[in-house]
Specification:
The complex is a heterodimer of chains A (301) and B (342). Chain A has 14 helices and no strands. By secondary structure, chain A is mainly α. In chain A, α2 packs antiparallel against α14. Chain A is globular and about 75 Å long. The N terminus of chain A is likely disordered. Chain B has a domain of 238 residues: MetI-like fold, CATH 1.10.3720. The two termini of chain B are 41 Å apart. Chain B has 342 residues and is mainly α. Chain B has a two-stranded antiparallel sheet. In chain B, 71% of the residues lie in helices and 3% in strands. Classes of the chains: A mainly alpha (301), B mainly alpha (342). At the A-B interface, α2, α5, α6, α7 and α10 of A face α1, α2, α4, α5 and α6 of B. Chain B: Its main location: membrane. Chain B: It is a multi-pass membrane protein. Chain B: Keywords: Cell membrane, Membrane, Transmembrane, Transmembrane helix, Transport. Chain B: This is ABC transporter permease. Chain B: Belongs to the binding-protein-dependent transport system permease family.
Chain lengths: 301, 342
């Protein structure tokens, strides 16, 4: 799967080494990292992971222990108790269901729409294609947050406040997704295969279903995961439209724990841990693919 | 990837001609009409299906991207209250003059700029360094990449709450560590610069690994022979980094600068949740109130949606200026790099 995600250009070119090349010539992908490189990487890995581990440590203590010096460095015995209270206090069961629904629908729709649009931009000729692609790239530069006020007005007018569709609809579209799939399909889908299917009499939709979707499957999986993570972690918009009553997303619920008036820090940490855990699991399992996907999306084609 | 011939087989049975061909003479009239119909359908398909493929994106983008953006501009010229978002009174540019006269706007603009600089510059520099190291041949390199991306999986909400605890004035881990090496405790939430550094550190923590991966991808796309010819010319590794790696990364660096700039102009969740008073003011003395937070305060706390729209459009115009500057710089850079290319 990963081999197909990595575009051909990024693979280190095999060079027949001329004899007695200076040592410095073998820089870049060729050079082996020394102890200094490992030391720096280990430090950065610890800095990256420490706040996450410490969330779990704090969630396993009680509030009084957290209000002492030195702060706790190892796990206490309160973890499951705190998780249970945080789960109930923040109504996390419903929040998980809501967020899974929102992120699932968004990711699925974005992946499908991005694949067919990306296919059109990558492989089909039509009038206005370049101009439209410029618009797509341009929209990647427009921050979505600048639209929250009219979106809020629209949602209020439609009477969708506090309902999940208010969160789902604005997140169904991703210019990054279109760009990502276009980059992938340019390289992964040879023109000959489309032509062959065309000669066989397949309509455009048939080509999409029987040729494009199977070819794009690895990239679709990666894009789906990226979009799932992004929607799962979205904060501002759900925070604005889902604050009045009961159906929050996980992020809104977790933030709500922190904004209570008598905050119990260990409970807040338990909530933060619960809100992060599902995605960390996804990363633990599919980390390699996600890393490959981000790197693939970064390379210009 | 094989085409499924069983399902993609042509509908025409006699002669097996592809539908694109002109109808053959000498066939029965009925068959000729059928072929002409298929051919027309075929041409319609080729001509219009690309538009069908891209239209869902553009329709959704019009409804949830472009229309709201323009409508924000329209709303910024009106007095609109949160309690009755559909009642709009034309006030011209008064919303803009009101916010420009507001000291809190300029304070928020300054804070956004400083938080943007102290979060973006170290973040991208560190990402570049890490990418350079990750580009070596290493054991367990996938592990480091995934571990460094783990903060990206953490939400703003969870990350901000954890950092509030780590940066606590009396019992936080960071002040404890400072005390350990003999430095007086810092009021990370109350004082201006410490609080801005603390908010920035949340951003740096979440995004450094992500940017490192982007740089790494670009580094791996640099052709190896560039390094070899540089080495044959006698360049050491530092010189190779500055004369081969950095110039090749220019487009990627500009891309990350633009994306980070946009992100920095939007900072909202981190300062909101970092505030001990649970308010939208960005600390008791607005010491870390960003433009995003000021927009929220005007629109949803003070309920002036019109004024909030004016803030949003001001931010948009600033971003356009940054975009144009960036475009000009990247063209200059491209032109100058082409001059030196053999």
């Amino acid at each position: 799967m990963t081999t197909t995600v990595t575009p051909p250009e990024t693979e280190p070119a095999k060079v027949t080494k001329p004899p007695r090349l200076p040592k410095s010539a073998r820089a870049g992908g060729q050079l082996h990292g020394g102890p200094v490189a490992y030391a720096i990487l280990v430090v950065f890995t610890i800095v990256s992971l420490f706040p996450l581990v410490w969330t779990a440590i704090a969630a396993s203590r009680d509030n009084q222990r957290l209000a002492q010096t030195p702060p706790p460095f190892w796990f206490g015995s309160n973890l499951f108790n705190n998780l249970e209270i945080a789960w109930k206090d923040a109504n996390l069961g419903e929040a998980f269901l809501n967020t899974t629904l929102v992120a699932g629908i968004s990711a699925l729709t974005i992946v499908c729409l991005s694949t067919i649009a990306g296919f059109a931009f990558a492989k089909l000729r039509f009038r206005g294609r370049n101009a439209m692609m410029l618009i797509v790239i341009g929209t990647m530069m427009v921050p979505p947050q600048l639209s929250v006020i009219p979106l809020y007005m629209m949602v209020a007018k439609l009477d969708w406040t506090d309902q999940l569709q208010a969160v789902i609809f604005p997140s169904l579209v991703s210019a990054f997704g279109v760009f990502f799939m276009r980059q992938y399909l340019i390289q992964a889908l040879p023109d000959e295969i489309i032509e062959a299917a065309r000669v066989d009499g397949a309509s455009s939709w048939r080509v999409v279903w029987h040729v494009v979707f199977p070819t794009a499957r690895p990239a679709m999986a990666v894009l789906g995961m990226l979009m799932f993570v992004q929607t799962w972690n979205d904060f501002l918009w759900p925070f604005l439209v889902l604050t009045q009553t009961g159906s929050p997303t996980v992020q809104v619920a977790v933030a709500g724990l922190g904004r209570g008036y008598t905050p119990d820090q260990s409970l807040i940490m338990a909530g933060a841990l619960l809100g992060t855990l599902p995605l960390l699991l996804v990363f633990a399992i599919f980390g390699k693919q996600i890393v490959g996907g981000i790197m693939q999306g970064a390379v210009k084609g | 990837m094989a085409t499924r011939h069983d399902t993609a087989a042509p509908p025409a049975k006699e002669g097996g001609a592809a539908p694109g061909r002109p109808p053959a003479a000498g066939l029965p009239e009925k068959e000729q009409r059928r072929r002409a119909r298929l051919s027309r359908r075929w041409q319609r398909d080729v001509r219009w299906s690309p538009y069908a493929f891209v239209s869902p994106f553009f329709l959704l983008f019009l409804a949830f991207g472009l229309f709201p953006l323009i409508y924000t501009g329209w709303a910024s010229l009106h007095q609109v209250e949160l309690t009755a978002p559909t009642d709009m009174d034309w006030v011209g540019l008064r919303n803009y003059t009101r916010i420009f006269d507001d000291d809190f706007f300029w304070n928020a603009a300054k804070n956004t700029l400083t938080i943007g600089i102290i979060s973006t510059v170290p973040q991208l520099l560190m990402a570049m360094g890490i990418a350079h190291i990750l580009n070596y041949k290493l054991r367990a390199s996938t592990f480091y990449r995934v571990a460094m991306l783990a903060p990206y999986a953490t939400s703003i909400a969870a990350a901000s709450l954890v950092f509030v605890l780590l940066f606590g004035r009396d019992y936080g881990m960071i002040n404890w560590a400072l005390d350990f090496i003999g430095i007086d405790p810092v009021d990370w939430q109350g004082d201006k610069w410490p609080s801005q550094i603390a908010v920035s550190s949340i951003i740096i923590w979440r995004w450094t690994g992500y940017n490192a991966l982007i740089y790494l991808a670009a580094m791996q796309a640099i052709p190896q022979d560039l390094y070899e010819s540089a080495a044959l010319d006698g360049a050491n590794r530092w010189q190779q980094f500055f004369h081969v790696t950095l110039p090749s990364l220019r487009p990627t660096i500009l891309f990350t600068v633009v994306v980070s700039t946009i992100g920095a102009s939007q900072v909202f969740g981190e300062p909101l949740l970092f505030d001990a008073n649970k308010g939208a003011s960005g600390g008791a003395e607005h010491q870390f109130q960003t433009l995003g937070l000021y927009l929220y305060e005007q629109g949803w706390v003070n309920q002036h949606l019109g004024r909030a729209s004016a803030i949003a459009w001001t931010m948009f115009l600033i971003l356009i200026v940054i975009g144009i500057v960036n475009f000009v710089i990247s063209r200059r850079l491209r032109a100058s790099s082409e001059e030196f290319r053999p």
